[in-house]
Amino acid sequence: MTPAKATAHPKAAPHAKTATPAAVTSPFSGVYTEAVGRRKNASARVRLYDNQKSLFVVNGKPATEYLKTDKLIAAALQPLKVVGRQTMSVSVRVSGGGTVGQAEAIRHGVARALLKVDKDLRSALKPLELLTRDSREKERKKPGLKKARRAPQWAKR
Fold it and tell me: Side-chain half-sphere of 115: how many Cα atoms within 13 Å?
C-alpha cells in the first residue's frame, strides 16, 4: 500500500492567508464597577466607568440604536439621572426577554452598580424602587386553557 498523498483543493489559492482583523480600540478602558440587573426573562450585566465620556453602549451598539425609543433609553438611564452622574459611561451585555424587560433590567443593573460605587446613594435610589428586583414573571399555561387563565369560548349548545 502506498501512503495517501495530501493534495490541496484545486481551486484553493496556495498562498491565501486569512485576513487578521484590525486592532479594535474599545472606548471603555480602565477601572469599572459591575453589577447584574434582572427583569422578567431579561438579564443585564452592567459595567460603569467613571471616565467622563458619558457613553452608553448596549451589546456593542449605541443605546439609541439598540433600545430605539426615548422612553426605554430614559428608563435605562434613570438611576444615573436621579443621582446626577450622567457623565459616567455605561457598557451593557443584555440577553433574554423583550425590549422593555431588557431596558428595565439595565435600569436595575445600573442602580446596583451605582450602589457599589457609593453606598450613600442608597437613600436616593431606594424610595424610587430602583434597587428592588421586580419579581413579576409570566404565569405558566394551564392544561385545558388557551393561556394562563384564558378559557376556551363557552358554547351553550
Answer: 17
**Residue 41: domain span:** 32-125
Beta strands in 23-127, from DSSP E residues, in sequence order: 32-39, 42-49, 56-58, 61-62, 89-95
Q: What is the CATH number of the domain that holds 51?
A: 3.30.230.10
Q: Give pLDDT tens digits for 24-64.
A: 456 677 788 999 999 999 999 999 988 777 889 999 899 99
Residue 19 lies in a domain: no
Residue 10 belongs to a domain: no
Number of domains into which the chain is organized: 1
Residue 120 DSSP label = G
User: Does any domain span residue 1?
Assistant: no
Single-letter amino acid code for the residue at 2:
T
Contact 138/98 with Cβ under 8 angstroms?
no
Assign 124 to helix, strand or coil: helix
pTM for the model:
0.77
Contact of 48 with 117, CB cutoff 8 Å: yes
